Amino acid sequence: MSELDFSDPATIALLTEALTAAGVDGLEISRPGGQLRIVVAGKDGARICSTGTTPHAPGLAPGSASAVVKAPMAGRFCVEHPAASAAPQNLPRSVSDADIVGFVGVGYILLPLRAGRSGVLTRLLAEPGAPVGFGDPLFEIELQS
């Protein structure tokens, strides 16, 4: 039997549909390289959280003054939540390490992207609405000194 790829959008969508159909509230899978959590949240749909091998912002090279937020899985890149009625925020803008700066979506499932570092969000590295792959660079953050 082959090992499941938990970064694959089709696998995540299939698991989410199966959980919903079975009336299960959620699922958490832990492996040495990371963790995947799917929570079925009623009318709001499912929430997915992935940790471990999921990069928020990579380590910095010595002397580096910026960090890159990368896609934690394959899917469609969104800068704003699709249901948001607020006007999109322009760049550059200040962010804290816990701020949600975008989303990667697969069907009705949205994975929030956290800045991972405090600083100034300066550049968008992917086109909103475009398909992205695991590890694709999405944002650049100038770090605060």
Structural Rg? 16 Å
* Strand element count: 11
How would you classify the helix and strand content by structural class?
mainly beta
- Helix content range: under 10%
Give the overall average pLDDT.
Answer: 76
> Numbering strands along the chain, what is their spatial order in the largest sheet?
4-11-9-6
Question: What is the level 1 CATH name of the largest domain?
Answer: Mainly Beta
Low-pLDDT segments, ≥5 res: 52-63
Please give the CATH architecture of the largest domain: Beta Barrel
Q: Topology as H/E string? A: HEEEEEEEEEEE
When the domains are counted, the total is 2
CATH topology of the largest domain: OB fold (Dihydrolipoamide Acetyltransferase, E2P)
Describe this structure in words.
With about 140 residues, this protein is mostly beta strands. The protein has 2 domains: about 10-50, no CATH class; about 65-145, RNA polymerase II/Efflux pump adaptor protein, barrel-sandwich hybrid domain (OB fold (Dihydrolipoamide Acetyltransferase, E2P), Beta Barrel). It has one helix at about 10-20, and strands at about 25-30, 35-40, 45-50, 65-70, 75-80, 95, 100-105, 110-115, 120-125, 130, 135-145. The chain has a 4-stranded antiparallel beta sheet with strand order 4-11-9-6, with no helix packed on it. The protein has a 4-stranded antiparallel beta sheet with strand order 8-7-5-10. The relative contact order is 0.20. Residues about 50-65 have low confidence and may be disordered. InterPro entries: Single_hybrid_motif. This is Acetyl-CoA carboxylase.
